[in-house]
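Field: COMPLEX_INPUT
Field: COMPONENT_COUNT = three
Field: RESIDUE_TOTAL = 156
Field: MODE = joint
Values follow.
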Amino acid sequence: MVKRYWLFKSEPETFSIQHLMIMANQVSPWDGVRNFQARNFLRDDVKLGDGVFFYHSSTKETGIVGICEVVRAGYPDRTAFDPSSPYFDMRSTAEKPLWYCVDVKFVRKFSRVILLSELKQHLPTATMMVCRRGMRLSIQPVTADEWQAALKLAGK
DNA sequence: GCCAACGTTGGC
DNA sequence: GCCAACGTTGGC
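Field: COMPLEX_OUTPUT
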């Protein structure tokens, strides 16, 4: 089984890499995703052991802030069942879950943010989905080449 | 705060 | 099944 790579977006005000770092065992569900294309990735394609870039969006410095790892593959997102959750969706039931999540574990926080502007400037990373204008998908596949190239930028 | 881009909803 | 209206995302 080939290890795959992903980029997960989050608004740091809602959930940042710092939040993940202080969770028990530094593990958290990646829940609240309410977009069908992203849901399909979480349900069908994101697998145990996959690498994930943690991306901060809608903030001063938008970009990749670190790495985490998938420690549990797709399972029903329980926030959809919880009427008190902002992510509640009455269409989703235990018998027929509509929304899915995975669990991620913190691996590393970069010493600096790899800015979106940097990703766009360098060719190996400029092909990343996140660099595309108007790209709102919050769960994005990343190629092995893009992963390596972005990691290189982090080391600079 | 603006607004382009896009996903979803719902009337027909 | 089309598509206009609407709501949301998210960079700038």
